Amino acid sequence: MDREGGAGMKNIVEIKNLTKNYFNKRALDSLNLNIQEGKVVGILGPNGSGKTTLIKILTGLLRQSKGEVFIDGHNIGVHTKSVVSYLPDRNFLYNWMNIEDACDFYKDFYSDFDEKKFEELLDFMKLEKNMKVTSLSKGMHEKLNLSLVLSRNAKLYILDEPIAGVDPVARDQILDAIINNYNEKSSMIITTHLVRDMENIFDDVVFLKDGEIILQGNAESLREQKGKQIDDLYKEIFSV
Amino acid sequence: MYYMINTLGQQVNGGENMDFNDNLPIYIQIMNLIKGKIVSGEIGKGDKLPSVREFSKKLKVNPNTVQRTYQELEREGLVFTQRGMGTFVTEDKEVIKKFKKGMATNIVNNFLIEMKKLGFTPSEIMDIISEWIEKEERE
Question: Closest approach of chain A CAs to the CA of B19, in angstroms?
């Protein structure tokens, strides 16, 4: 808490000159990005643009080749893992589990897991504790995973493609849950290629192409400057 | 209050997903929506606006965007904030009247620009308008 102070917003994430090479392939090239407390940031780009590599570095699953990454003022490690709540783009629960087991699993793993919040979210998502993980549809799976992730009192939520492949009703519930969970003390990073559906919940957007940030800024300022919605901007940038 | 949140929400929501399709920042589109409701009297003077959180949920937009909308409306004098109570529509009839007039001016301006593009002269435009008004009154 060394940099606490008045109205000054502090950065939850600071990325300086981040580069990642896989052998001779460059996956991320000199990324610079700060994310302030209380901001929802959309990382936008097609498959292969480097979104997943970036997220894997932030969550400690991969190490950078060059550059620095700080979350909550710390290098990636034990502390940052304890303050980051991560929704992977694939299922992370065991098949033998029912929702109650998944809840216990999270409770054991994360001291910041708020069971009451989880129960409220389950209720909102219309899921029952006795449902088996294997009996859930794709949309229900996503809703359960998101409920678990949002029930942690984290400083940074990282949601990787939270609405990919879900039906419109589930999509709306997911968006609602994300907006409900918003608070001024934490930040969110959301990757998506479904820009139209999600752009209105972003404070800032980052366009990632071939491992480089080719455009970043406040979503409203970009709309004002470019005279178009973020989705149209996305199509313009990535259709060439 | 709930009624108002719903009517405010429906216009943008249409029950489905939000539809902020103009090429304008979202906060300006929400401002225009609220201004329209205030000027038309659908939201009365002194009425409370939905809370930022509630409204952002309804519109499915970032709470900071709704916050900005309210700040800008306050800057323009259409609403005021009461600490701990919420955001309210101004009690000042004159301010609302002024806004109504400003919005009318915009509509008339755009209309005239379009009509002139089509090659109508001012007197032809006058004729078309009075014809329409007469027709409307007869119905």
Answer: 10
